[in-house]
Amino acid sequence: MAADQATDRRVAPARGGYYRRENGVSLIELRLSRIAQLFNSLDPSPFHEKDLDHDAEEYIFTSARELGPGTPFKIVIHLPESEMAGGRAAKDAIHNYFAYRLDATRREIRYEMRLGRIGLAIGLAFLFACVTARELVQRLGDTTLVNIAAEGLLISGWVAMWRPINTFLYDWWPIRRTRAVLERLAVAEVELRPEPAG
User: At CA 130, angle to CA 125 and CA 133, rounded to 5?
Assistant: First the structure.
């Protein structure tokens, strides 16, 4: 009974998928026949500095995102006994890669916020100019043409505000969610397990 409690191998549902659990920790598992499968074959760097293979990186990231922020997890790599010697490099590579992506994502958030502030300043200036022009146009009389021009100026001013408002309300949230996942992956526990031959 104690052994059953120590290792819970039931398939447990997680958001968007099913992951095995051990001791309350969800497992993101990869089964490889060679340690080199984990890495981008075109990257000439040493293993601990290599980029991860796109499919492996996408699977790890997507799994961590599906599990959600409150779910503890670890990455488990199953390898043949003969490939276990490269395990330390694999752990370092995973941490280095996701730490690099985290840094890039933080820079992207700062860049988006800077663009949003610049866009907001330009949008407000254009809106002010359109409202001012509308006031001048309305002094020309109450004809259909004048009313169309006045409303067109007002609409143009508010349309110019769409992009900065969209940036501050919506654009940065997906990047922030990505950052939260990468923060967890950059320090996630990585375990290598030998696979029986055959």
Answer: 125
CB 176 within 8 A of CB 109: yes
Q: Which single residue is written with the structure tokens 């120590």? A: 6
pLDDT by residue (tens digit) across 68-96?
A: 888 899 999 888 887 787 677 788 888 88
How far CA 38 is from CA of 33, 47, 69, 97, 133, in Å, comes to 10, 10, 25, 12, 61
- Name, in order, each residue with C-beta under 8 angstroms of 107's C-beta and a sequence gap of 6 or more: none
SS3 track for 106-160: HHHHHHHHHHHHHHHHHHHHHHHHHHHHHHHHHCCCCCHHHHHHHHHHHHHHHHC
**Which helix (H) or strand (E) segment is 19 a member of?**
strand 17-22
End-to-end CA distance of the chain: 31
74 forms beta bridges with 27, 189
SS3 163: helix
Amino acid at 47: F
The burial class, CB within 10 Å (0-12 / 13-18 / 19+), for 181 is buried
Strand 189-195 with 73-80, pairing: parallel
The alpha carbon of 24 is separated from its chain's Cα centroid by a whole number of angstroms, namely 25
pLDDT value at 178 more than 70: yes
